[in-house]
Each structure stands twice: as structure tokens, then as C-alpha cells.
Amino acid sequence: RRCSLGLVPDLRSSDTSSLPGFENLTMGYNKYLRPYFGGEPVQIAMSLDIASISSISESDMDYTATIYLRQRWTDPRLVFHGNKSFTLDARLVELLWVPDTYIVESKRSFLHDVTVGNRLIRLFSNGTILYALRITTTVACNMDLSKYPMDTQTCRLQLESWGYDENDVIFTWLRGNNSVHGIEKLRLSQYTVERYYTLVSKSQQETGSYPRLILQFELRRNVLYFILETYVPSTLLVMLSWVSFWITLDSVPARTCIGVTTVLSMTTLMIGSRSSLSKTNCFIKAIDVYLGICFSFIFGALVEYAVAHYSSSQKCAAKGHQEGPANELTKEMEDVNVTNILNSSITRYQHKISFTSIEISRDNVNCNDLTMKTHKKIKRVLRNKLHRIIGYFTIQNPSNVDHYSKLLFPLFFMLVNVFYWAYYLYF
């Protein structure tokens, strides 16, 4: 009996003298058998203190928390006389029966052991045992990042019995939602705890039905950081690309420099926003949608200048072709004198006289030259229709492209922003 709790004789005698009936603690106790073995299940009441949530990882989809887990149950084999409670050495836990509670979906967990193992054993006179542990655990949390960074994540901390089914132990929260403390005082870098609640459930396994306690809490991401770091710079880059609409079409270096610079800056911003979530690229996130919209507007501003400049070049070329023959005709008219007019009139008169003296025979007429082949006619008709279609899309006044772009680009961008923020904030 002395070896069952590892007590030395003189300590045991002193405990016996100070606690009436304390010797009953060693009589017939077996740490391998649960209380009420073979009878009713053991009621285990739990409470939690959340000391900290050190990190929440979107790439690994987990969170790391330090908790104080407290378990209470009654063991009639440890009843002693009196109305006092005693805190025992934590190393005595190896000599007592304790529940086999584990954390569901835990990736890594450890007990703190500085300066000794952070465990507490408190014994009450009615046989109630308080067993407290300080645990740091990394628990998986399935996240939906489709609305990132305007998302709200729901994570769980689940406690379950490993080997004892519901016929042996029953898990309950000590005081319902009030059994959890500290979570409302947490200050996280990117999140705010919206609400939390406790649940009592069962886990149906192949080996039986096991009791489970669930702490569920909702985390809302603070979007202000992302607004300052990503949304505002990307919006300013879009507005910067509109500056080119106020620069004349002839300033090719200035407008090209603005367009290319904004495109490259936007590309760098997109790469930087995805670097922190390198392992979640399969998600199309809200921030990716917004950056894609901004990139499209910036690229559209660059394409707009290309279209306007090309139309202006074509118009100048066409005007040059029309003015060329007119200038030559004017120059010739200036060189014409009276003698040339008389010579040309005499020559024309002689050609008319000689033409009348020519006999027109059937052999001199070539029918192939007077008619066109059918496929040539078809080609000519198709060519005319093609020129007509191209004419519909030909910009008559290239300067109007910039004029309309000054109004349409900001208007469409504001409209897209209204739909974007309304969808991701309220749907």
C-alpha cells in the first residue's frame, strides 16, 4: 500500500496525523482502473483559459495557441475526512488515474516544463480532483480564402477522449460558455475575435462513440492593413495611367513611359501580394480580383494610346496622299504658257484626224480584254465590302479617343468598384 502512491513511511505517518482518514487513500487504489469501474461513467467537467494565439497561418491553414486546460472529476477512492483541499506535487500525477484527453486535429503539441512540468493536482475532501495543464498546440483550421482579405474564418478547438467511450466517461463544460476565459481579451495582429461558443458533441468511430467538447470561435480579418498596403497603391497606379489622356498624341516618349511604368509597377504589386500566400495559389481571392481589375484598366490605357496614335498616323498618311497630286498639278499649271497650250491643241487635233482614218476590223478586237473573269469580279466585290467594314471601325478623329477616354475610364472604374465592394462586403 505504501508503494501504490510512492509515499515514504515518515511522510505518510505525518499526513495521517494531520488528515484524519488519509490512510484510506492508499487502500485498494489502482491507477489503471477508472473511478466507478464497471459502473456508471465518470463525469469530467472542463474549463479553458486561452493565454495567447501566437500565429494564424493561411498558407498552412492552422493556428498556434497556448491554453490552460482544467479538468475536474470525482474519484470516491480518494475521499478523506475534513473540508480542506490540498495541492499535491505535480509528479504524483504519475500515480493517479487521469483522463486520456487529447486535442483533435492537433499537428504539434507540448507541455511546458520550465522550471518543472506545468501541471497542477489539487485534491478535495469529497474526492474531487482538479487537474490543470499548460499546453501549446498547433491545430488545423480549414479556411475559405475566397474573400481574402475581407474574410471571416471559423476555427475550432476540440477535446476528445482517446480510449474511453461514452460508456466510461462523459465530457461536459463546467459552466457552459463561461467555461472559456481569455479569448475576448486577445489582441491579434490581423484578426479580431467576433464571437465564440461551446458545444458538446460525440465522435462516432469504428471502435465506438466518444465524447467531444468543442470551442468554436470566429475570426474577422482587419482589412485596414491591406487597404493601406495594396488597395490604395493599386488605385493610385490606375489613376496615374489616366494622366496620359491629357498628353498630346505627338508626345510618344512621355505617354509610352507612363503606360509601361504603370504596367510594370502593377505587376510587381501583384507578385508581392501573392508572396505571403505562396501555398494557396489555387484560391482566387478577392484581392486577386481587384488587382486583376486594376491591371486591366492600366493595360487598357496603354492600348488606348496605341489605337489613337495608329489612327492619327493613318489619317496623316491619307491626307498626304491627297495633297500630293494637288501640289503637283498646281506646279504644272504655273509652268504652262501660251505656247504649250497651242502645241497641245494642234497635237490633239491631228490625233482626231488620224483616228478617223483607221478601219476597225473584227480581228483587232480582243474579247478577253473587254470582259473580266468571274472570280476577279468576286474578288473585287469582297474587297469593296471589306473596305466598307473597315471603314465602320475607322476612327475619323483620333483626338476624340483621348477625349472620350477621360470620361469613360474613370466612370467604368468607379462602377466596377461599387460592384466589387458591395459583393465582397455584403454577400
Automatic annotation (TrEMBL):
Membrane topology: Multi-pass membrane protein
Top-level taxon: Eukaryota
Lineage: Eukaryota, Metazoa, Chordata, Craniata, Vertebrata
GO terms for MF: GABA-A receptor activity; GABA-gated chloride ion channel activity
UniProtKB keywords: Cell membrane, Chloride, Chloride channel, Disulfide bond, Glycoprotein, Ion channel, Ion transport, Membrane, Signal, Synapse, Transmembrane, Transmembrane helix, Transport
UniProt xrefs under Pfam families: Neur_chan_LBD, Neur_chan_memb
Predominant cellular place of this UniProt entry's protein: membrane
Species of the source: Heliornis fulica
Domain Neurotransmitter-gated ion-channel transmembrane as annotated: residue spans: 230-332
Biological role: Pi subunit of the heteropentameric ligand-gated chloride channel gated by gamma-aminobutyric acid (GABA). GABA-gated chloride channels, also named GABA(A) receptors (GABAAR), consist of five subunits arranged around a central pore and contain GABA active binding site(s) located at the alpha and beta subunit interfaces. When activated by GABA, GABAARs selectively allow the flow of chloride anions across the cell membrane down their electrochemical gradient. Pi-containing GABAARs are mostly located in peripheral tissues.
Protein localization: Apical cell membrane; Synaptic cell membrane
CDD domains: LGIC_TM_GABAAR_pi
Reaction(s) the record says it catalyses: chloride(in) = chloride(out)
PROSITE patterns: NEUROTR_ION_CHANNEL (PS00236)
Cellular component terms per the entry's GO annotation: apical plasma membrane; chloride channel complex; synaptic membrane
Neurotransmitter-gated ion-channel ligand-binding domain segment(s): 23-222
Oligomeric form and interacting partners: Heteropentamer, formed by a combination of alpha (GABRA1-6), beta (GABRB1-3), gamma (GABRG1-3), delta (GABRD), epsilon (GABRE), rho (GABRR1-3), pi (GABRP) and theta (GABRQ) chains, each subunit exhibiting distinct physiological and pharmacological properties.
Alphabetical list of InterPro entries matching this protein: GABAA/Glycine_rcpt, GABAAp_rcpt, GABAAR_pi_TM, Neur_chan_lig-bd, Neur_chan_lig-bd_sf, Neur_channel, Neuro-gated_channel_TM_sf, Neuro_actylchol_rec
SUPFAM superfamilies on file: Neurotransmitter-gated ion-channel transmembrane pore (SSF90112), Nicotinic receptor ligand binding domain-like (SSF63712)
Protein family: Belongs to the ligand-gated ion channel (TC 1.A.9) family. Gamma-aminobutyric acid receptor (TC 1.A.9.5) subfamily. GABRP sub-subfamily.
Signal listed as a keyword: yes
Name of the protein described by the UniProt record: Gamma-aminobutyric acid receptor subunit pi
Segments passing through the bilayer: 223-247, 253-271, 283-303, 407-426
